[in-house]
Amino acid sequence: MKHEHRAMAAELRTKGRKLEGYAATFNTEARIAGAFTEVIAPGAFAGSLRAGSDILALADHDPTRVLGRTMSKTLRLAEDSRGLTFEIDLPDTQAGRDVLALAERGDLGGMSFGFTATDERRDGDRRILRAVDLFEVSVVSAWPAYPETTVQARWKPVGHIALAHAQRVIRIMEAQQWAS
């Protein structure tokens, strides 16, 4: 079976050192290499998610730039009515820091996924992916195949940053108390 990759501009958010969003969306048409139109059917990823396979999160499909994996629970995947959701706990590595910096600036192209089609239907130049064997999701720097989704970066204080903010708030409250 042939391994394939699909990139899409996915909704992407940062929360501290986490990325989350949609790696794929259902019922959205994408023109693949100008040759055919592809649509992902709802439930296409369900078999892979049930199987408990070790699925990787990569930067630009590069297996030397691992961002997370389901086996270690640093990558979490699920299907909802819109598509394949993901959450990645980013590592404190160069790849993790680079991806986070690009996400916060809004510079990422989107998401992509690597798969083997296990059930597809063709109708002329239209291909419907009904079931796939998913082996990776990737944060991509450049051109997505599914441009209808969006990439967003949001930041939420965590860890020592949240603690420092809380300490500043307490000092301000104490100063206000002394002033009154």
UniProtKB/TrEMBL annotation:
One Pfam family recorded for the sequence: Peptidase_S78
The keyword Nucleotide-binding is annotated on this UniProt entry: no
Record's keyword annotation contains Secreted: no
Protein name: Prohead serine protease domain-containing protein
Keywords for this protein: Hydrolase, Protease, Viral release from host cell
GO biological process: proteolysis
GO molecular function: peptidase activity
Prohead serine protease domain ranges (all copies): 14-154
InterPro entries found in the cross-reference section: Peptidase_S78_dom, Prohead_protease
